[in-house]
Design goal:
By secondary structure, the chain is an alpha+beta fold. It folds into 3 domains: 66 residues, no CATH class; 60 residues, no CATH class; 83 residues, no CATH class. The protein is 43% helix and 17% strand. It has 8 helices and 7 strands; from the N terminus they run ααααββββββααβαα. β5 and β6 form a beta hairpin. The chain starts with a helix and ends in a 6-residue tail after the last helix. Bound molecules: zinc ion. Zinc ion binds next to loops.
């Protein structure tokens, strides 16, 4: 009986393995056909098909988007936005009140996701370009457990002369004994939703943005935003 069970198990694994292989080959054939229809050379189509065996998104979400016509691109952008209850792929639903923030997202010259300056919710004022979503923000540390408190902190980009008791409380006594009453230190961020008035150095940290429950952050989304920059549609 044990031998029969082992044989059945082995057959199940073989069948599953075959199903995966067949699936990958089918995906590669689809890519090859589509690439040729899109005008890629025979060799390039074959290359994309082979890549698709391990990484199909490389073709569907990169190379293919470059070859879409304006009407195809607009159709794709519209249906993708609608699937996420948005008018455009560059808009964002406010995680606090669900209002739609228009034209909030962009891509940098290097193709990375970016937040537009002063991107905020029209209903509750929630800011996407808030310090808590920025890589330059240093969250406060809870003195007891060492945990980070993201509600306030400091900015490592902007510095100003400050009393050492405020800037470096842990070593203030030693610094004062050495004759330093004030020192240049990262500026205080009183409320991590409100950037410094002079701030022009917001640097998106996507992981921090996800913590604020901003939905639909993915490579595909960034690819669609890049596509929308190529085929801009004026929003009402
Ligand atoms: Zn809101």
């Amino acid at each position: 009986m044990a031998g029969t069970a082992a044989l059945v198990l082995a057959l199940v694994f073989v069948a599953l393995g075959l199903a995966v292989v067949v699936g990958r080959i089918a995906a590669a054939i689809r890519v090859d056909q589509d690439a040729r229809e899109r005008g890629f050379s025979r060799l390039a189509s074959l290359g994309w098909a082979m890549t698709a065996v391990v990484y199909p998104a490389g073709y569907w979400w990169q190379a293919r988007l470059e070859r879409l016509s304006a009407s195809e691109a607009n159709g794709l952008l519209q249906s993708a936005a609608q699937a996420h209850r948005l008018v455009s792929v560059v808009n964002v639903r406010c995680p606090l009140c669900d209002a739609e923030m228009v034209n909030a997202l962009a891509v940098t010259a290097s193709g990375a996701l970016a937040i537009r300056r002063l991107a905020h919710c029209p209903r509750c004022d929630f800011r996407l370009d808030a310090c808590r979503h920025c890589g330059n923000f240093l969250p406060a540390e809870d003195g007891i457990s060492g945990q980070k408190d993201f509600t306030y902190g400091r900015c490592k980009l902007y510095r100003a002369a400050q009393p050492v008791r405020e800037a470096y409380p842990n070593v203030a006594k030693r610094l004062e004994a050495m004759g330093y009453d004030t020192m240049k230190a990262p500026k205080r961020i009183v409320d991590s939703y409100v950037p410094l008035d002079e701030c022009t150095g917001f640097a998106l940290d996507e992981a921090r943005l996800k913590v604020s429950r901003i939905r639909w952050l993915s490579r595909q989304r960034t690819a669609l935003i890049r596509l929308s920059a190529k085929h801009p549609v004026v929003q009402p």
